[in-house]
Design a protein that fits this description.
This protein is mainly alpha-helical. The protein contains 34 helices and 5 strands. The N terminus is likely disordered. Pfam families: PPR, PPR_2, PPR_3.
C-alpha cells in the first residue's frame, strides 16, 4: 500500500499538483491505522522510513502517529539511534524531542543509551544546544554516574564551547557531594565570564551541607547577602532552607534562628521544610521546650506541618526523656480530644513527682511548669513508620506497650520493618529477657522479615549484657550461616564481651572473630583485646597463691604501638587446639609482644597437656634477622627477654642456635654461659668461635627448648595452672 502511495505522490508532484489535495479524512484514518499496526508488530524502523518519505512531500504526519508514542517505543526497545533519527524529522521541534529522548532513557536508568542518543543528537544539530548538554548532565546524576558528567563538561571545553549558567548549575548539582570539584567548577564559571545566579549559590550551600563545612557556608551566605543588598541577587526560600539546615546539623540552633529573622525581614515566608529544620536544630541541641515553641509559631503562621516535622518534635521529646508528652502529642495529632497535651495536668509538686519516678522507673518523665501551648489546631497527620519507631523507643523497658504500638502499626496499614523488630528486640533484651529477645528474632523471620545485621547485633548485645556469651557466639555463627555480614558494632560487641579469658577455647574464639573482622576491612581497637590476652598468658606464671610480678613492668611499655601484628601472631599460633609443630615466629615484635606470644603458646601447651595430649616435638623460636657481631657479646633485647622468661622464670633449658651450630645455656650458676656481656657462643667440642675483625655476620638466630625440658616443666607446674 505504501509503495503505491509513494509512486502516486511522486507522479502527481511531477505534474505540479499537490498530493495533499487527494488525501481526505478517510484516507488519513486508514494511513494512521496502518502505521499503528506496523508499530505494534515491532517494525518501528519501517514506520520511521515511511515518515521520512512523507516528510519529503511536505506531508504533515503528526496526525498519523503521536511523536511521543514512537519515541517511547524506541526507548523501550533500547534503540537510541532510531529515536534520534525519528525526532530529526520534525524541523523546529527536534531540539525538544532530543532532550525528551535522553530524559526517557535516564528515567529508565539506561545511561549508555542516553549517551548514544546525546552523541547522535549532537551530530544532527548545527550549533551547540545548551538544553541538550544540561539534560545529559542531569541524566548522569539521576543514574548515579557523576564521572560521566565531568567527561561531558571536559568535552565541551575542549570544543571551545562555553556552557551557560544552567549547564554549570547542573554540573555542580550532580557533583555536589565533591566539595572541591564543585568549587573548582564555580571558579571556572566565573573565569569564563558566566554570571552565577541564586541557584549557583544554593548548590554551593548544598555542597557545604554534604561536607559539613559550616565555615564555608557562612562565607557564602555573607556573600549572597551582600549581593542581595546590591540588588544583584534575590535570595529564595531554598537559600534560607539550606543555610538553616547546615546550622541545624551542626547543632547551632541560635544561628539557625538568626537566619529565620533575616528571612522574615527580607519578606520570605518560611515553608514547612524550614520550620522542620528549625525545630530539628533545637531538638538536636536538647531544647525540647524551644522546639515546641517553634512548632506553635509554625501553626500560628498558617503553615501545616508534615509528618517529618511531627516526627522531629516527637524525637525532641523522647531525647529530653519527656515520654508522656510525646504520647500525648501523638494522640492529639491522631484526632483525639484537644486537651492540655503540651504541658499536662499535674497538680502534684516537684518532690511528689520525683518520689513517684524514683519508685516507679516505668513512669513517664513529667516536666512541671513546662511551656504551655495556647494554640491547638487540627491538621492532617499521617503517622509513618518513623513515628511509631520513635514512640517505641519512648516505651523504655515496657515491652508490652512497645508490642502494642507495633500491632497498631499493622492496623493502620504500616508493615513493621527491620527497624521495628530491632527496637522490640532491644526493649525485650534491655529488660533482661534474653530468651524473649531471641524468640522475637525468630518471630521476625516467621513474619516474613528476614533479620538483618542490626537485628542480630541487637540480640547479641542483649546476650552480652546478661553474660550469656555462649548464646551470643551462637547467634554470631547463625548470622554467618545466613550469609549476613557483621558490621563494626557486631565485632566490637563480641570482642568486648569478656572481662577475662578462662580457657584456650575462649581465646581462640575471640581471636577468630578478630581475624574475621580485619579480613572484612574493619579497623579494630586492639588495645582492649591485647589486655585480655596478656591476662590469659599470665596464667603460665601463676601458681595457687602467687602471681609473679615480672610481667607488670613490661605492661607499661610500648602501649602506644599498634597491636594488630601481635594479635595476628597470637592468632596464628593458637589456630589449632593441638600444636603439632611448636615453631614460634617472633620476627617484627618488640620484647613485650614477643613475651606475650611465647606465653600464649606455653599456655596452650599446658592446657592441652591437662587434656592428655603429650609433647611430640621440640619448641623452636625464630628471632629477627640481625647483624650480629659475636666478638661484642651483645644480643638483641628480644632474645635476652625471651631467654630470661624461659630460663629464670619458667625453669626451662634454652639452647641458642646459629647457622651450623647449637649452644647450650644451662641453669647451673657456675656455667660461664650467662646473659648479657658474659654470654659466650660455644661450638661443638668446647671450641670458641673466632671473632670476625672486618664486618658483622648477617644471621637468623633461633632458640630451642627441647621436648624433654618441656615435659619436665609440665610435670612440675601442671597442678598450679588455673584453667
Amino acid at each position: 500500500m505504501w509503495a503505491v502511495l509513494f509512486v502516486f505522490m511522486k507522479e502527481t508532484e511531477k505534474l505540479g499538483v499537490s498530493t495533499l489535495k487527494f488525501l481526505d479524512g478517510v484516507t488519513i484514518d486508514l494511513l494512521k491505522k496502518e502505521c499503528i499496526r506496523i508499530v505494534n508488530c515491532g517494525d518501528v524502523e519501517q514506520v520511521v522510513d515511511i515518515m521520512e518519505t512523507l516528510a519529503g512531500f511536505c506531508f504533515s504526519f503528526k496526525e498519523l502517529v503521536d511523536p511521543s508514542y514512537i519515541i517511547k517505543v524506541c526507548v523501550d526497545k533500547l534503540n537510541p539511534k532510531m529515536a534520534v533519527r525519528y525526532a530529526a524529522i520534525f524541523p523546529g521541534e527536534e531540539r525538544i524531542l532530543f532532550c525528551n529522548i535522553i530524559s526517557e532513557f535516564g528515567r529508565k536508568g539506561h545511561l549508555d543509551s542516553a549517551l548514544v542518543a546525546y552523541d547522535e543528537a549532537k551530530h544532527k544539530l548545527s550549533v551547540p544546544n545548551m538544553y541538550l548538554h544540561r539534560t545529559i548532565i542531569d541524566v548522569c546524576g539521576v543514574c548515579g554516574d557523576y564521572m560521566k558528567s565531568r567527561y561531558i563538561y571536559k568535552d565541551l571545553l575542549d570544543r571551545k564551547v562555553v556552557p551557560n549558567v544552567y549547564v554549570f548549575n547542573s554540573l555542580m548539582n550532580v557533583n555536589a557531594h565533591d566539595l572541591g570539584y564543585t568549587f573548582s567548577v564555580f571558579k571556572n564559571m566565573q573565569n569564563l565570564g558566566v554570571t552565577a545566579d541564586v541557584a549557583s549559590y544554593n548548590i554551593l550551600l548544598k555542597a557545604c551541607c554534604y561536607a559539613g563545612r559550616v565555615d564555608l557556608a557562612k562565607d557564602i551566605y555573607r556573600e549572597v547577602k551582600q549581593l542581595e543588598s546590591a540588588e544583584v541577587l534575590l535570595l529564595d526560600v531554598f537559600t534560607y532552607c539550606m543555610i538553616i539546615k547546615i546550622f541545624a546539623d551542626a547543632k547551632m540552633w541560635q544561628m539557625a534562628l538568626r537566619i529565620k529573622e533575616d528571612m522574615l525581614s527580607s519578606g520570605v515566608t518560611p515553608n514547612k521544610h524550614i520550620w522542620s529544620s528549625l525545630i530539628s536544630a533545637c531538638a538536636k541541641a536538647g531544647l525540647a521546650e524551644k522546639a515546641i515553641q517553634l512548632f506553635e509559631e509554625m501553626l500560628l503562621s498558617g503553615c501545616e506541618p508534615n509528618s517529618q516535622c511531627c516526627n522531629i518534635l516527637l524525637h525532641a521529646c523522647v531525647e529530653a526523656c519527656q515520654y508522656d508528652r510525646a504520647f500525648r502529642l501523638f494522640q492529639c495529632w491522631k484526632g483525639s480530644e484537644a486537651q492540655e497535651v503540651f504541658h499536662g495536668d499535674h497538680s502534684g509538686n516537684a518532690d511528689e513527682i520525683e518520689h513517684a519516678q524514683k519508685h516507679c522507673p516505668s513512669m513517664p518523665n513529667i516536666v512541671p511548669n513546662s511551656h504551655h501551648l495556647n494554640f491547638i489546631k487540627k491538621f492532617p497527620f499521617t503517622p509513618t513508620p518513623t513515628t511509631y519507631h520513635i514512640l517505641m523507643k519512648a516505651c523504655g523497658s515496657d515491652y508490652h506497650r512497645a508490642k502494642a504500638l507495633m500491632d497498631e502499626m499493622k492496623t493502620v496499614g504500616i508493615s513493621p520493618n527491620h527497624i521495628s523488630w530491632s527496637i522490640l528486640i532491644d526493649i525485650c533484651g534491655g529488660s533482661g529477657n534474653v530468651s524473649g529477645a531471641v524468640q522475637i528474632l525468630k518471630n521476625m523471620r516467621m513474619a516474613g522479615v528476614e533479620p538483618d545485621v542490626v537485628a542480630y547485633t541487637t540480640a547479641i548485645k542483649a546476650c552480652v549484657e546478661t553474660k550469656n556469651l555462649k548464646l551470643a557466639f551462637s547467634l554470631f555463627a547463625e548470622m554467618k550461616r545466613y550469609q549476613i555480614k557483621p558490621n563494626l558494632v557486631t565485632y566490637n560487641t563480641l570482642l568486648r564481651a569478656r572481662t577475662r579469658y578462662g580457657s584456650l577455647r575462649e581465646v581462640q574464639q575471640c581471636l577468630a572473630i578478630y581475624q574475621d573482622m580485619r579480613k572484612a576491612g574493619y579497623k579494630s581497637n586492639d588495645y582492649y583485646l591485647k589486655q585480655l590476652i596478656e591476662e590469659w598468658c599470665e596464667g603460665v606464671l601463676q601458681d595457687k597463691n602467687q602471681i609473679l610480678d615480672g610481667f607488670a613492668s613490661y605492661k607499661r611499655t610500648d602501649l602506644g604501638r599498634p597491636q594488630s601484628l601481635l594479635l595476628e601472631k597470637v592468632a596464628a599460633h593458637l589456630q589449632n587446639n593441638i600444636a603439632e609443630n611448636l615453631a614460634i615466629d617472633l620476627q617484627g615484635l618488640t620484647k613485650v609482644e614477643a613475651r606475650i606470644v611465647v606465653l600464649a603458646v606455653l599456655r596452650m601447651i599446658k592446657e592441652n597437656y591437662t587434656l592428655g595430649y603429650s609433647i611430640k616435638d621440640d619448641m623452636w623460636i625464630t628471632l629477627d634477622v640481625n647483624k650480629v657481631d659475636p666478638a661484642s657479646k651483645r644480643d638483641s633485647e628480644v632474645k635476652n627477654a625471651i631467654i630470661e622468661l624461659l630460663r629464670n622464670e619458667l625453669g626451662l633449658e634454652v639452647l641458642i642456635a646459629v647457622p651450623g651450630h647449637l649452644d647450650d645455656i644451662k641453669t647451673d650458676s657456675n656455667n660461664p654461659l650467662d646473659l648479657g656481656p658474659d654470654l659466650v657462643v660455644r661450638l661443638a667440642g668446647n671450641k670458641k668461635m673466632a671473632s670476625p675483625t672486618r664486618r658483622p655476620l648477617v644471621v637468623t638466630q633461633r632458640l630451642k627448648v627441647r621436648r624433654e625440658s618441656l615435659h619436665e616443666w609440665l610435670q612440675r607446674r601442671v597442678g598450679a595452672i588455673r584453667i
